[in-house]
Specification:
Elements: H1 2-10, E1 15-16, E2 41-47, E3 53-60, E4 65-74, E5 77-82, E6 91-94, E7 100-101, E8 107-112
Antiparallel strand pairs: 1-8, 2-3, 3-6, 4-5, 4-7, 4-8
Length: 114
């Protein structure tokens, strides 16, 4: 139940970005500074050379979380596949079976403030 609510709240935070381009995140707070909880920043996405998965990583977690999204196409249609939520390190989202990541806009990142 909480996950559904988190997804609905996080939909507005989804930022589609070009491969390896930095994502612009919302500011942590008006004052900023150490200890401020907020949106992850300095985020990047990439597509695996075989188009099997995407990865996402944010240099500055700022107390928030992020995850990779792969937009996968295959014989059954187009699907969004999600990586695990992270506050550090790399999140990977994998296509299933015969699906491949869309080459032009198949990598995305979703962020949240917790």
């Amino acid at each position: 139940m909480a996950r559904v609510g988190a997804f609905a709240a996080g939909v507005a935070a989804v930022a589609m970005v070009a491969v390896s381009a930095p994502a612009q995140a919302a500011p942590a707070s008006a004052g900023g500074g150490a200890g401020a909880m907020g949106w992850p920043g300095s985020c990047h996405t990439a597509i695996d050379e075989f188009r099997d998965y995407t990865s996402a990583q944010c240099v500055e977690a700022n107390g928030g979380s992020y995850r990779a999204i792969a937009i996968c196409e295959g014989p059954m249609g187009t699907f969004h596949r999600y990586g695990g939520w992270r506050q550090g390190g790399q999140s990977n989202a994998y296509c299933w079976g015969e699906e491949k990541v869309r080459a032009d806009d198949g990598a995305a990142i979703e962020t949240r403030t917790w």
